[in-house]
Specification:
Layout (H helix, E strand, L loop, with lengths): L7 H22 L9 E2 L2 E3 L17 E5 L8 E6 L8 H7 L14 E2 L17 E5 L11 E4 L5 E4 L1 H14 L7 E7 L1 H14 L8 E6 L14 H13 L7 H4 L4 H4 L2 H7 L4 E6 L3 H8 L11 H5 L6 H17 L1 H4 L5 E5 L10 H4 L12 H10 L6 E3 L17
Parallel strand pairs: 4-6, 4-9, 9-10, 10-11, 11-12, 12-13
Antiparallel strand pairs: 1-5, 2-3, 3-6, 7-8
Helix pairs in contact: 1-9
């Protein structure tokens, strides 16, 4: 997940979540719940990447996956920004450049499921749209504009902003310029990127074309952990300064605050004018694992059981996590008061939800107001209920649909 996470939970989270989802998928395949094989979409390398200065950390061309829409969705586009945390030091970025999160040399096509699926049952609202997944290989939420060298003299390219601009340019040339409706989305670091680029993306289209943004598990908070340290600020400060992300930050924020503060979503949403939907857990598993109770501040591992299952938490631990949730709800008041914006803030122990069939729209998906995430996003997008703003209750109040997610 993040660059050198400070808890075993966070370090293992992506693998554990993937394994758990695969396990559930296997169970579903033997049950009465209908499922379909996820679609593998061909990887496309950006043309003339070096000439455009749009390269991954190691200098290789960035990549995306595009599945063409069909029928009534042939002129509708969903562009998804892949997540995968950040690298905030030269050492981290050097290591990352040897993986699929820093080089297209190691990338393989990923399966399109959940919000990206072409299966009507799994994805009833966007299944026939043109679907794009922009792969993440810059380590800076598609925002950086710099170069550097590791200790061995090997060049590192922090070209996230150029990647973003060049890939969108290429998509426009492939038909997105004629879109009738568009949605920019992302999960985790990609969810942050969707917020960073939301208004820029909106500006590329005719004013009459509906363009909206969705951030899934990308609402990161600048809060202290139990030892008084600010984990997310240390990560973001490194990214902001190492990768030079100032160009994507709101000018009104930069006029008053440090660039690192302006990289946080609570500040970003103050300046976003494009209609946006925020999906997050009030007990986001990544932030609980790294921010509320990181391993370094938990030498006795008293939080280990709590992190594994929120129902195992002590009253003191619940108090700490509810304090985190209250800060999130408070910071989201800006979004609550924006006309047309959407919120889906659940109280389950999870992180990304939109990229998976189980959590996006299935019989065992979490629900708020009796709606799956897919239902809520669709109602918000088409304007059926412009005021989709769902915020779950705080623990120990239990949303019964959380348990069906295996407390991810």
């Amino acid at each position: 997940m993040a660059t050198t996470p400070r808890s075993g939970f966070a370090a293992a989270a992506p693998r554990l979540i993937t394994m758990t989802l695969l396990a559930v998928s296997a169970l579903l395949s033997r049950s009465s719940v209908p499922t379909a094989a996820a679609e593998l979409v061909e990887l496309t390398l950006l043309a003339n990447a070096r000439e455009k200065g749009a390269v991954c950390l190691d200098g290789s061309p960035p990549a995306y996956q595009l599945r063409r829409g069909f029928g009534a969705g042939s002129r509708s586009w969903l562009v998804n920004l892949e997540g995968g945390a950040w690298c905030n030091t030269t050492e981290d970025c050097s290591s990352r450049s040897l993986t699929d999160l820093g080089s297209s040399k190691f990338m393989k096509p990923i399966e399109f499921e959940g919000m990206l699926s072409n299966n009507h049952t799994e994805n009833p609202y966007f299944y026939n749209w043109n679907i794009v997944d922009i792969r993440y290989c810059d380590g800076g939420s598609f925002a950086g504009d710099a170069e550097g060298e590791d200790r061995n003299g090997t060049k590192l390219f922090y070209r996230g902003l150029s990647i973003w601009e060049a890939v969108v340019d290429e998509l426009m040339a492939k038909g997105m310029d004629a879109a009738k409706q568009v949605l920019l989305a992302g999960c985790s670091a990609g969810g942050l990127a969707a917020l960073l680029h939301c208004d820029n993306f909106r500006a590329r289209f005719h004013p009459e074309v509906p363009v909206k943004c969705l951030s899934d598990a990308g609402f990161f908070l600048d809060v202290k952990d139990s030892s008084g340290e600010r984990f997310m600020r240390s990560i973001f400060s490194g990214v902001v300064h190492l990768q030079n992300v100032r160009k994507v930050l709101p000018k009104d924020c930069l006029a008053k605050k440090d660039p690192t503060e302006c990289f946080f979503p609570p500040e970003l949403i103050k300046s976003i004018s494009t209609t946006t939907f925020i999906r997050n857990s009030g007990y986001d598993s990544y932030q609980v694992g790294n921010v509320v109770a990181p391993g370094g501040s938990d030498p006795g591992q008293s939080w280990a059981s709590c992190k594994a299952d929120i129902r195992n938490c002590t009253s003191t631990q619940i108090l700490a996590m509810n304090g985190f949730r209250e800060k999130m709800v408070e910071d989201l008041k800006v979004a609550q008061h924006k006309r047309g914006w959407g919120l889906f803030i659940d109280s389950c122990f999870n992180h990304c939800q939109t990229p998976f069939r189980i959590t996006w729209h299935s019989p065992i998906s979490l629900r708020l107001g009796n709606k799956t995430i897919a239902d809520a996003v669709a109602d918000w997008y088409v304007g059926k209920d412009h005021g989709v703003k769902e915020i779950d209750c705080a623990y120990p109040c239990i949303n019964p649909t959380c348990s069906s997610q295996l407390d991810l």
